[in-house]
Design a protein that fits this description.
With 364 residues, the chain is mainly alpha-helical. The protein is built from 15 helices and two strands. A two-stranded antiparallel sheet has the order 1-2. Helix 3 runs antiparallel to helix 11. The longest helix is centred in the middle third of the chain and has 27 residues.
Length: 364
């Protein structure tokens, strides 16, 4: 018996709390719960400074105000999943908004028959982006930077010197009214879009193809995925959602002009919301739930800065800061680097790797 190793008794009791804490830590490292916690923290901190910030009407406004950006960010997420980017979503939103707005202002047309118009405009313009990127082999950032100017010019051509500032009262009710207390109608729209797109990403061959192309386009092609068709469809869906976001903007703001969308730099805000929500420019990672939550987080932060008296001009700077932070977080999480290695810079990381290789060689 002395020559037989005795099995160690399992220490189950001490391990259970550690396992629970570990699981909780992994859950909190996910982008979605983190965004919920951060949004609530900013909200309650601002509420402590200014109690009116937490009034029922203001909560409803914050949620409704973030939905055009949320729908736009969901579309941007689809494109980023295939290692693309769409800088033209702002004028696409603007064209959809002013096209529907003139019908509403001149003829009193209800919003419901204008939904196919706005969505169809967005789909067509997004489809053009996809065709240029896929078949002309022009890099996405160059293509959409060009169409940003082209679509912006088209928006100015449609508007001329006119503006949309008189729309039927039903538009304001839909864009700012509540389905339930503190549950605006636009939040329902945003959640429905998120659920539909989440189902498409997780449960359909099209969604799986997006992730496969983003992870390895050559492997996806060898696996029989119709890469060109999927790429074109990603930009078309992004444009379609930008068109829908334009309608959401119209009913919420009740105003549109030749610079709607572009003047607010919504293309940058949509990229920021998508990346803060967990998507990466290297593709194959992220989801639409994070995009919606990130849009709410950004809107809460923007309104909190107004309450704090910070000038609006600093909003653009905050977008840039958030983009850099999101990129750094993904760099650390995906690359497996520690914060010490990250702040030490690439040279220190390379030297550490070389030292590790030398030590391993010496050990051999």
């Amino acid at each position: 018996m002395t020559g037989v190793a005795q099995p160690l008794a399992p220490t189950a009791a001490p391990g259970r709390p550690q396992g629970g804490l570990f699981a909780f830590g992994r859950f909190m490292r996910r982008r979605e719960p983190l965004l919920v916690v951060l949004s609530l923290a900013v909200f309650f901190f601002t509420y402590a400074l200014e109690p009116s910030f937490g009034q029922r009407g203001n909560i409803s406004f914050l949620l409704a105000d973030s939905m055009p950006l949320a729908v736009l960010a969901i579309g941007q997420t689809i494109v980023c999943l295939v290692r693309g980017i769409d800088l033209s979503v702002a004028p696409i939103l603007g064209i959809s908004c002013v096209s529907a707005g003139f019908y509403a202002q001149d003829y009193g047309t209800s919003i419901w028959p204008l939904i196919p118009l706005g969505v169809g405009i967005g789909f067509g313009l997004g489809l053009l982006n996809g065709l240029f990127v896929t078949y002309a082999r022009i890099p996405p950032i160059v293509t959409t930077l060009g169409t940003l100017g082209i679509y912006g010019g088209l928006q100015e051509l449609i508007c001329g010197s006119s503006e949309i500032n008189v729309v039927p009262p039903t538009y304001h009710t839909l864009g700012n009214g509540d389905f339930l207390p503190d549950v605006p109608y636009l939040l329902i729209v945003g959640v429905v879009v998120m659920v539909v797109m989440a189902f498409a990403l997780w449960k359909t061959p099209w969604g799986r193809a997006l992730y496969a192309i983003g992870n390895n386009i050559d492997a996806a092609f060898r696996a029989g995925i119709r890469v060109n068709l999927v790429l074109v469809s990603a930009y078309a869906v992004c444009g379609m959602l930008a068109g829908l976001a334009g309608l959401a903007w119209l009913v919420h703001i009740d105003y549109a002009s030749s610079v709607t969308g572009s003047a607010e730099s919504l293309q940058l805000w949509s990229i920021a919301a998508a990346m803060v929500g967990g998507v990466t420019l290297t593709g194959g990672k992220g989801g639409v739930i994070g995009a919606l939550l990130a849009a709410i987080f950004l809107d809460v932060c923007t309104n909190a800065t107004l309450v704090a008296g910070i000038p609006v001009i600093w909003n653009s700077a905050s977008v840039g800061v958030l983009l850099i932070i999101a990129i750094l977080i993904d760099y650390v999480q995906s690359g497996g680097y520690s914060l010490r290695q990250m702040f030490g810079g690439p040279l220190r990381a390379r030297l550490a790797a070389e030292r590790g290789g030398t030590s391993a060689g010496g050990a051999k």
